Amino acid sequence: MALRFEILGRFNRARAAQLTLPHFVCQTPLFMPVGTQGTIKGLTTSQLEEIGCQIILGNTYHLALRPTSELIDELGGLHKFMNWPRALLTDSGGFQMVSLLHLADITEKGVTFQSPVDGKPMLLTPEESIQIQNRIGADIIMALDDVVKTTITGPRIEEAMYRTLRWIDRCIAAHKRPHDQNLFGIVQGGLDPVLRDICVKGLVDRDLPGYAIGGLAGGEDKDSFWRVVAQCTAALPEDKPRYVMGVGYPLDIVVCSALGADMYDCVYPTRTARFGTALVPEGVLKLKHQAMAHDTRPIDQMCECMVCKNYSRAYIHCLVTKDAMGSQLLSYHNLFYMMKLSRDLHSSIVEGRFPEFVCKFLQKMFPEGD
Ligand code: GUN
Ligand code: ZN
Question: Is residue 221 among the annotated active site residues?
Answer without folding.
Answer: no
